């Protein structure tokens, strides 16, 4: 089941740089593991912003929520979820 | 080059049904031809709305604009474009 | 899987009254059949507005979309969907 | 009498973790006691957000306000109340 | 139980003047009857706008909704309801 | 002359509790004195929020501003003023 | 007593041109008479828009409302009123 | 050339009171000097808010910007500029 | 003097196509004449929208307003003006 | 390829003045180098605000993002990107 997610990241200025770096590294590893598993289907950077649009393919809302709240950067993010489905005009097998 | 596009469709109630049907059919053919060419990379329906999120992969802003204004439903749409780029955490070859 | 849906209804003034009445009657029957099936779990009127908050319990986003776009009043509605899940503090068996 | 409530939680980063944990534990106990009493009829997590939609069934506005301002997390919440009533299409006895 | 209500009126330009006048007259009678009964506690015009702020004192949400949807001008109004309660600093007996 | 005022209170978390308590006590005394004088005609708590709707009856804008900026909590408030007048449908002597 | 008023004008396209012209002429005469009387203290056009910012100096809210609702263009306007008062830094006698 | 400016002031709570007082005094002197020169044509307090509406009469955008960024309170203000011009209905010589 | 202008065009669906075409042709000629005169310094299409961002270089607000309200499409446009000035970092002679 | 960018700058009050000054100096040098290269085509100050509208001419979204996130002030900016293209009415060679 597909979901469109926008994530805006806002790391507080007083977070020690080492701590920020460590969180960002964990975030990347976490994201890539989920991409490899097929659950995090797409991730794109939004030009000029510290933000991304992502597409998730998960079993249900519970799994999506567990993934999002498990993000190392979760507490510094504003997240907006939109449920998607196959478009009747789509010709791609993997747009489902 | 990738763009995120949201399209909201609002067909006026007084458009003759035959005309509406013909436009929608042309829209579908137009979209599928662009999907086959690789320029319209993804299209997803937004649950509960007559709207879609799409990803376009085009040469430049000009080509994107030509495609969008060429949509048979263009005059009944509200369109919002966001430029995207490869996310540093992405592992997919085709997220570029 | 649970979804929170807000529906705002706006029936055009020039819709013949008989037609409006017939659509509203079909809407009610459609809603009650889905309530009996358990898919439309709750529906509440919002005080002072021609609008409702509803909770749907469906298999997936596709089913939700099919139900919502099948509403006889769909073309006169503005719809906003929010995916829900069991809250960790919930004690009700049927809040899942 | 029914009310729809949206609660968004925003715990300040500089709140000591032990204090935050203690408040969250009290919040859960408080919520569950009110659920058991029947006054907090439903609570659902919003996917991807530290927020919930809840339905309260209380005697009047005063009781609702007392419950909400008594929430251990109240001072870290943004709360929005909407009064509800039975929908004419509802078939559930407990949607009143 | 007290409610704060904002009503914005927008009478369509093509409504025959006689019909509009008749609806407005019924609206006034309806409002005054409810004021006499004590249920419509206050009504004030907002300067420069075809709108009012009103305070209702009703048994419950159901009664409020019945009153508001019974307004002769209801279909030409945008209505926003906010539940109120006695303020701890109030000294007036009738602010309850 | 009547004014509708919405006040939202937001006391900073780092204000010493004793200082906050003292300000709130002064706020209450200040409000009640103005209520007794007839200038602060009504005050209602908004359910679920640290906010109120109030009605002031003052000589002019200057007096209203002096009262509002004199509020002990003024610097922690967001205030929105709307000028009111007698509604043509009002039957209450004191809605003027 | 001073008020800041923004007026946005939107004349419907299907209003016969002669009728529109006649209303606009009456509007101008009405405005100039009020300017001569000193009640409509200032009127400025907003660059690029069919809108104005005006300053009124009236006895009270009632008089302001009577003036605004008496505007020949009132039914085609969106109006927003803000109460003003003398600024403590003002040195002009007529900014009161 | 005329400009409409809204200024909202928000002095941070941790600014030492003496420093705040000194800035406010300089602000007043600065404003009055510009009023005397005729460049700051009007300034009015907005009732209930720490904000003002002002009218500036300057040579060009550059001069306006220099004046506004020179405000002692500039770094604590949110400023919104709207270009104005003489209204065709105006009868005042100095509304130009 | 420079101004940033956003124009959104919305041609009503019931405008006869010949009339629309004639207006659009006049709009183009009008724009190009102003571009040649140097007053309309830049015009860019916004990708995916029937809208443009433009830069005007005019003597004053009056001239800008005369140009904008003289646009053949003016009555079908929403226009938003922002006054600009030379940026202290600019190195271009013609960014003034 | 052209992009319209709005940048709003908000330097935190507790940033040491020397550090702020050094960042602003680097920002200026960075901007001027990009202007000289032709990639940062225009930059204008918005009157009354610490903000600018800029036009970039870059190879693609990637290059734009690299430039914007490389801004010394990036972490203190809110940035909004809009893709542009040649307007059909433009007569300037360099509006492409």
UniProtKB/TrEMBL annotation, chains A, B, C, D, E, F, G, H, I, J:
Entry's EC annotation: 5.3.3.4
Pathway entry: Aromatic compound metabolism; beta-ketoadipate pathway; 5-oxo-4,5-dihydro-2-furylacetate from catechol: step 3/3
Enzyme class: isomerase
GO biological process: beta-ketoadipate pathway
Residues covered by the Muconolactone isomerase domain: 1-89
Alphabetic keyword roster: Aromatic hydrocarbons catabolism, Isomerase
SUPFAM superfamilies in alphabetical order: Dimeric alpha+beta barrel
Keyword presence, Zinc: no
Pfam families documented for this protein: MIase
Membership in a protein family: Belongs to the muconolactone Delta-isomerase family.
NCBIfam families referenced in this protein's UniProt entry, alphabetically: muco_delta
Name under which the protein is recorded: Muconolactone Delta-isomerase
């Amino acid at each position: 089941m597909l979901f469109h997610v926008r994530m805006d990241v806002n790391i507080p200025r007083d977070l020690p740089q080492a701590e920020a770096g460590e969180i960002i590294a964990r975030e990347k590893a976490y994201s890539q593991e989920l991409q490899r598993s097929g659950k995090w289907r797409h991730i794109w950077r939004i030009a000029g912003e510290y933000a991304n649009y992502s597409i998730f393919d998960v079993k249900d809302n519970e799994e999506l929520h567990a993934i999002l709240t498990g993000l190392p950067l979760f507490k510094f993010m504003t997240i907006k979820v939109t449920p998607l489905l196959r478009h009747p005009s789509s010709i791609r097998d993997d747009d489902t």
